[in-house]
Known about the structure:
Layout: H1 11-22, H2 26-39, E1 44-50, E2 56-61, H3 86-90, H4 101-108, E3 110-116, E4 123-130, E5 133-139, E6 144-150, H5 157-160, H6 166-183, E7 188-193, E8 196-201, H7 214-221, E9 230-236, E10 239-245, E11 258-262, E12 265-267, H8 270-279, E13 292-298, E14 303-304, E15 315-316, H9 319-337, E16 338-341, E17 355-359, E18 365-367, H10 380-393, E19 411-417, E20 421-426, E21 430-435, H11 436-449, H12 451-456, E22 458-468, H13 471-479, H14 481-486, E23 490-493, E24 497-504, H15 512-520, H16 527-531, H17 533-547, H18 558-568, E25 584-588, H19 589-595
Parallel strand pairs: 1-7, 11-13
Antiparallel strand pairs: 1-2, 2-6, 3-4, 3-6, 4-5, 7-8, 9-10, 10-13, 11-12, 14-15, 16-17, 17-18, 19-20, 20-21, 21-25, 22-24, 23-24
Amino acid sequence: MEKITLNTLPQDIVNQIAAGEVVERPASVVKELVDNSIDANSTKIQIKIENGGIDLIEVSDNGVGIPQESLDRVFMPHTTSKISSLEDLNTLLTMGFRGEALSTIQSVANVNLISKYIDSDVAGEIVFKSINDFSIKKAARETGTVVSVKNIFGNIPARKKFLKTAQTEYKKILDVLYPYFLIYPNIHFTVVKDSKTVIDLKEIKDSKENTVVKERVDEILKEDFVKRMLKVFYDGSGVKISGLIGHPSDHQKRSNHQYIFVNRRPIWDSGIVRAVLSGYERYIPHGERVPFLLLIDIRPDLIDVNVHPRKEEIRFLNPFRAYSAVEEAVKKALSTTMSYKLESEYKPSTTQTPSLVNTDFQGKRYKSKDISFKQTQSGSVRDSLLFSKEVLDDTSYIKNDSQQDDVNTSFRNIFQIFNKYIVIEFENETLWIVDQHAAAERITFEKLKDSKAIKSEQQNLLVPISIKFSEKEIVVLDELKGFFNDLGFEYLIQKEGIEILSTPVEFVGADFRKLFDEIFELSEDISYISKNIDRLREDILATISCHGSVRSGQSLHREEMIDIYKKLIKCENPYSCPHGRPAVWKLRLSDIDSNFERTY
């Protein structure tokens, strides 16, 4: 039997193996370096990214810095200024134990560090040729630290080949940075991507770390729901909770804006999410989601922060206590600021319903989502022409040119009920009840699938429409630009969002902000949409179709109803909307007679 030899691995290989725990991709490096900058009490942090961080990640700050005599020690394994005993590990309240960070980063990339310690007159610089071959010298820097990380995984080709495209890696970096932007309004953050400043978040005066300020949240998320968010607060049983939760009227099937922080660490905990939704139990439909930003401060001895190598999860010593506190905090915020009231102008009617009204902590009142839909296209000339034609044509029989068996005849009558359904009576004793919105969605959906038909009816906007989006959303919209152009939507990418120049004629009056928001909601990770555009194509078209179609609750003229009918029967699938809901309910006279037990 062959003798087994045990080898002691060299330190550089040990470091590379350990790096897998900390450095998974460029975003991991950004997280470690930004953590260090925050721990250094920085009020300005700049992140430079080149080629998605693959070629360069540079994080500079104005923090307290590192003494020159300690520059080599910060790159040694298991070296930290935060821990000297096991008790320190259990009660750590800074961004976490980062003893492996610089050591492991240096083992998988080319690293250079310049730092000026707050009590020093001159800065120091450390330059590495290899893990044990480095030089330290004086350098020019006014304050703080700058760390440059180049050619990540350049010395480990097997790891580098698993990195994604530069755009994907950049989006992962933004995913890491957004939580910091949200809870450190006291820090001026700047992101420079490929030599261009793409994010510049000024420090908000008089703000503190580990707080949520609506001004900063709005600047980052650029979402309309932010102004309606409610403050949440709880303090008891060793747990303190603060932050913002969404107004119930802003519920959605999915939400990309759910952030949890425990003792300043961005983490994810499905139990906390369930607790939030439990707090909304009386206010939103089952299965819906809401945006929220929750900051949970808890005694360090009541949690374990070392259950995840990248500190993305924690374990509560008493989960029930933590989850109950979250649920109670949400319920209290909703019950004290929400009230069900009738609008002052409300008059009892079968077409109106009470509105959900919120008086927020600034005294402003917000109405819930409007459940009635106004007609999207109108004009006095057009309406008068249609009205005249209606009167003249009221008793005429409209012949249909369909070749389908059960409708190859004329219809006697066509009318609308409840501003929701089109009823069509045919001469062959058949009755159709058509869901006007589902039918219009199907028509628009099949038209969108034929990009040539859309392009031929593209309309340039007299005044371009500007819409603000977050940097993550702008990246996705830039990637989807060609896709939308094929559908007849042309827009320019701007620093703060997009500028829509032209659209298909059906979408001239559409709510584009809402349209794009619903497209982003097709996936929890919006970057998935651009990466899987072919797979999601029909889902996106179905979402778009909903916004360019006749709505439920919209009054229609006779000619409009006839137009929907004629276009629907020419569709490849006229029986359902693109989401799968029925568009037509067919009844025969014999079915109706049977219901009334009529035999003659």
